[in-house]
Every structure is written in C-alpha cells, then in structure tokens.
Amino acid sequence: MSTDLFDDLPPVVSRETLAPGAVLLRGFAREEGAALLQAIAEVTRQSPFRHLVTPGGYTMSVAMSNCGALGWVSDRSGYRYDALDPLSGQPWPAMPAILRGLAVRAAAQAGFADFEPDACLVNRYEPGARLSLHQDRDEQDLSAPIVSVSLGLPAVFLFGSTSRSDKPQRHRLAHGDVVVWGGPSRLAFHGVAPLADGEHVLLGRQRINLTFRCAG
C-alpha cells in the first residue's frame, strides 16, 4: 500500500471541461475535507452504510447511505427514491449544512446557479469496489445538475456520452475533487473503475463519494 502523495500538496483549484455542461473542479473540496468527513460520520451513525441489492439480484460492491429529504434505494422491486430509510423506517438524516453549502457552491462554479439538492447519496468504496456505467435518470428534475465529491483514496472516474456504446473518458479523481454535470451532459453514462488499494491519510483504505441531486 502506498500513501497518496498528492495529499501533501496545498489545495489547488482548477476548472477542466469534460464535455458540454460537465466540469471537473480539482481540489475544490480539499480544505473542507476533515469537516466534511465529520459530518458524514454523523450521517452514517444514524443511517449506517449498507450494500444494496439490484433488481437483478446483484449485491452492489459499493456500500451506501443517504441524507436529505429523499434517499436513493434499490432492491428486487426496482430503483427509487424514498423519504424513509428502509433499515429503520425513519426519515433519512437531514443534509448537513456543510455538505449542502459545498454542493451549491460547486454547482454555481460550474455554471448552474440556484442548485437546491434534496438528496445526497453517500457511497463508500473499498479496494476492488466499482460502479458500472449507468445514467442518473431516477430524478424528477433532470434540468438540475449532478454534483459529485471525492474524498479519500483516488479513483478513476469513467465519463462517457448519452450513448452507452461510446467509449468513456478516464479521469483520475483525488481527495477534494468535485465533478458537476448537467445540461447536455445530464444523462451521460458514467461509472467508477475498480478502486486500487492504497492508504489515505484521513480515510485509510477507502474512498467516500458524495453525490448531490434534485430528486423530488
């Protein structure tokens, strides 16, 4: 295992265009990383990480939780958003102000003003975990962007077009990087390659991804 040497560097923000309506903000969340992780720990204390089952019966390698008015869930009956955590029958934890504020600022930086997320998916990747190419299309408001925040171990983000047959681009995401996509790229296929092993100074052998959406 090797330490991610980029964590020894000072925060750097650069704006890279991935496609029309899709922007990578490198280092955007780096300075808030420790505070974000504290907020996430409180969310997952209330609604612990779990491995969801897809409608086809496949257990996802990524563990997840949610916060906000709505949470994304999956089981043999399908994919959907629900106001209640199926494990507890209680509402999902409220979205912490620090998480919501980061998402709103990132969306504005990418050209999407007035972003008001009502759902934040909290995904935990351990070495070998992956996310296959998919579209985010379960949300009622497809005019709003997706905001995705990377914390912990670096990952290879796969970002394609609205056609599954097009080969996706590969982008290395480090701790604090934020990707925002909407407009003509809102339904772009995307995923995460199997996470390589490593040791992060704050998170150890894992990566946390926050994905903010306007679901309801």
Describe this structure in words.
The chain has 216 residues and is mainly β. It has a single domain (15-213), classed as Sandwich (Jelly Rolls), CATH 2.60.120. The chain contains 2 helices and 13 strands; from the N terminus they run E-E-H-E-E-E-H-E-E-E-E-E-E-E-E. The chain has a 7-stranded antiparallel β-sheet with strand order 1-2-11-8-13-6-3, with helices on one face. The protein has a 4-stranded antiparallel β-sheet with strand order 7-12-9-10, with no helix packed on it. It is globular.
Short description:
With 216 residues, the chain is mainly β. It is 12% helix and 32% strand.
Structural features:
single chain, about 220 residues, mainly beta, four-stranded antiparallel beta sheet, 13 strands, about 10% helix, globular, disordered N terminus
Mean model confidence by pLDDT: 94
CATH 2nd-level architecture? Sandwich
Named CATH topology: Jelly Rolls
Report helical residue fraction: 10-25%
Q: Any idea what the CATH superfamily is called?
A: Alpha-ketoglutarate-dependent dioxygenase AlkB-like
